[in-house]
């Protein structure tokens, strides 16, 4: 994606291990973010739906033409190897996942093709992903001449560009790499100011939408990341890797670990995968950070998986039993 990344570099952006930042970012409500920390796979062929349906946690066979679906791909032990955005395109499906796990996941998924009439390819060099977030996100898309999806978790397409709706304030634009600079410029003109990866990570944290990365692979069962609450699991479909564990977790009753949104103080040294502690668990880890984003004042917000009993007790520390304190924040959906 040289033309796209060269354009961003000419705009003063810096790219480090998929994380992009812009100098002197505007304090705007609506932002356009190059999603260089994400990548794309494409499954093409007449067997694409049953092939993916047999691998993922959601009902791919029932995925509609203009629908966007959350999915997980799990280990046989039910631990999430990837969180996935999935939708239909032509005779197949497109998948968005964290870029740092894409090559290994591509190889692993390819092993399941066997005699299925499917080809699985990496589109990361051909497609650019741009996140549009904020209260005027839909208006900015429309003003930039881009299609605007109708409703939650839906897809709109026009002139080779696809727009995915995550919720009312968050969209992903999927565009050919050669068109990305033009689209990014149009979004800027329409009032979506350029911003770095942290801005999108913060938007996803506040939306309660987790991203499984290399640091957190095989750490969580789907329910720990609230996946059944946000539409990422079907309990009516057939078998898939890890299905027995996911189903058993659901039928046992109250989940012992849940994903919460937390605030961390400035100066806190933490990253995805960092352990969390609570007095009730002593020196034993009571949870882990899933995703983290830095705010302009130097403090942080994060998604974290915690023992529900520790979250209810309210005293949480980051990195060590006597580490910096974390405060619980709300999510836009209720925890069952």
From TrEMBL:
<dbReference type="InterPro" id="IPR029043">
    <property type="entry name" value="GcvT/YgfZ_C"/>
</dbReference>
<protein>
    <submittedName>
        <fullName>Folate-binding protein</fullName>
    </submittedName>
</protein>
<feature type="domain" description="GCVT N-terminal">
    <location>
        <begin position="35"/>
        <end position="143"/>
    </location>
</feature>
<dbReference type="GO" id="GO:0016226">
    <property type="term" value="P:iron-sulfur cluster assembly"/>
</dbReference>
<dbReference type="InterPro" id="IPR045179">
    <property type="entry name" value="YgfZ/GcvT"/>
</dbReference>
<dbReference type="InterPro" id="IPR017703">
    <property type="entry name" value="YgfZ/GCV_T_CS"/>
</dbReference>
<dbReference type="InterPro" id="IPR006222">
    <property type="entry name" value="GCVT_N"/>
</dbReference>
<dbReference type="Pfam" id="PF01571">
    <property type="entry name" value="GCV_T"/>
</dbReference>
């Amino acid at each position: 994606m040289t033309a796209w990344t060269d354009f961003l570099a000419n705009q003063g952006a810096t790219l480090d291990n998929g994380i992009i930042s812009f100098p002197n970012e505007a304090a705007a409500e609506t932002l356009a973010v190059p999603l260089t920390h994400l990548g794309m796979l494409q499954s093409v062929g007449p067997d694409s739906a049953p092939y993916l349906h047999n691998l993922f946690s959601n009902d791919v066979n029932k995925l509609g033409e203009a629908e966007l679906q959350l999915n997980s791909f799990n280990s046989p032990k039910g631990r999430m190897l990837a969180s996935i955005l999935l939708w239909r395109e032509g005779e197949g499906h497109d998948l968005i996942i964290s870029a740092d796990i894409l090559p290994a996941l591509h190889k692993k998924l390819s092993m399941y093709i066997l005699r299925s009439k499917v080809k699985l390819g990496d589109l990361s060099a051909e497609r650019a992903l741009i996140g549009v977030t904020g209260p005027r996100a839909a208006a900015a898309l429309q003003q930039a001449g881009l299609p605007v999806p109708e409703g939650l978790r839906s897809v709109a397409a026009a002139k080779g560009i696809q727009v995915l709706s995550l919720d009312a304030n968050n969209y992903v634009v999927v565009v050919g790499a050669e068109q990305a600079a033009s689209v990014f410029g149009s979004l800027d003109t329409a009032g979506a100011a350029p911003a770095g990866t942290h801005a999108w990570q913060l938007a996803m944290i506040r939306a309660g939408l987790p991203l499984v990365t290399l640091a957190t692979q095989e750490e969580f069962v789907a329910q720990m990341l609230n996946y059944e609450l946000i539409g990422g699991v079907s309990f009516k479909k057939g078998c898939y890797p890890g299905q027995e564990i996911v189903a058993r977790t659901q039928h046992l009753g109250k989940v012992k670990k849940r994903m919460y949104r937390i605030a961390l103080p400035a100066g806190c040294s933490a990253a995805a995968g960092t352990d969390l502690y609570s007095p009730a668990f002593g020196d034993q880890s009571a949870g882990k950070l899933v995703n983290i984003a830095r705010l302009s004042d130097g403090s942080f917000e994060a998604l974290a998986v915690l023992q529900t009993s520790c979250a209810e007790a309210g005293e949480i520390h980051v990195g060590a039993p006597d580490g910096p304190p974390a405060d619980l924040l709300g999510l836009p959906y209720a925890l069952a």
